[in-house]
């Protein structure tokens, strides 16, 4: 692999939004791109080969990796993008709903990564880009379960990176803020709604909708994914977009009490 032919990329959740934009950016940079969707779609989108994969199913993930290897013979880059959201009070979700969320957002990443790692270790080369969020390092009221999955991915990614460096493999994080995708429309709702949270949940829904309208285009995040995938001296994490960079800076340097007060004020919560 070289600068003109960076290799083979596998992007999960590539049928729309950030995944689609990232796949296109990687393809424009010279990668041969395989994208996944949970349901069957066109076999090729803009020159990208689309394959079906349910990241919550071991056999589906194994079949995906076998298909990519049969067609391309290697995997140089894995972008773990597939994920779902959930907005509501933490106690409004049943354990089954919480487990289903973690099965996609956390264990889905683990499944695909574990399936790809033997290939990358054999190649003595590879890059894994995990899509996190600013909610992976800040509090996220009414997104507590979703934020927990992203916090888990942050810890997993940084730890795994240290394990894999001896094999020529690096693991990095991309952390977007609000992005103009269908994320808000596709947010799961709690399966055990409690009246006491109705007002706050409605305010948060409105806040998310307004933030999405002003959010970054998916191409902004895609540009960051490309940078994270090709950086010759990769960093642990890459903030995607102006807001994400600002939040990252504030989280690191603003006193905890001041950050807490500002967060509650912005979300319309009693200070």
UniProtKB/TrEMBL annotation:
Residues 7-199 form the Ketoreductase domain. Belongs to the short-chain dehydrogenases/reductases (SDR) family. It comes from the Bacteria. It holds the Pfam family adh_short. The keyword Oxidoreductase applies. This is Short-chain dehydrogenase/reductase. Keywords: Oxidoreductase. It comes from Labrys miyagiensis.
């Amino acid at each position: 692999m070289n600068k003109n032919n960076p290799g083979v990329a596998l992007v999960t959740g590539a049928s729309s939004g950030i995944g689609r934009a990232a796949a296109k950016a990687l393809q424009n940079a010279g990668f041969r791109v395989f994208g996944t969707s949970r349901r069957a779609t066109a076999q090729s989108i803009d020159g990208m080969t689309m394959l079906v994969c349910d990241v919550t199913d071991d056999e589906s993930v194994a079949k995906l990796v076998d298909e990519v290897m049969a067609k391309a013979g290697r995997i140089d880059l894995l972008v773990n993008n597939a994920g779902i959201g959930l907005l509501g009070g933490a106690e409004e979700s049943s354990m089954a709903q919480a487990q289903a969320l973690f099965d996609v957002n956390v264990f889905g990443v683990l499944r695909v990564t574990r399936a790809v790692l033997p290939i990358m270790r054999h190649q003595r080369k590879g890059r894994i880009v995990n899509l996190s969020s600013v909610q992976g390092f800040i509090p996220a009221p009414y997104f507590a379960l979703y934020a927990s999955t992203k916090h888990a991915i942050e810890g997993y990614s940084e730890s795994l990176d240290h394990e894999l460096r001896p094999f020529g493999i690096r693991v990095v994080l991309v952390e977007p803020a609000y992005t103009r995708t269908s994320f808000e429309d596709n947010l799961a709702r709690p399966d055990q709604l409690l009246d006491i949270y109705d007002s706050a949940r409605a305010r948060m829904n409105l806040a998310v909708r307004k933030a999405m309208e002003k959010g970054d285009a998916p191409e902004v995040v895609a540009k960051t994914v490309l940078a994270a995938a090709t950086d010759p001296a990769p960093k642990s994490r890459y903030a995607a977009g102006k807001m994400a960079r600002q939040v990252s800076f504030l989280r690191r340097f603003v006193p905890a009490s001041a950050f807490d007060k500002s967060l509650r004020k912005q979300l319309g919560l009693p200070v």
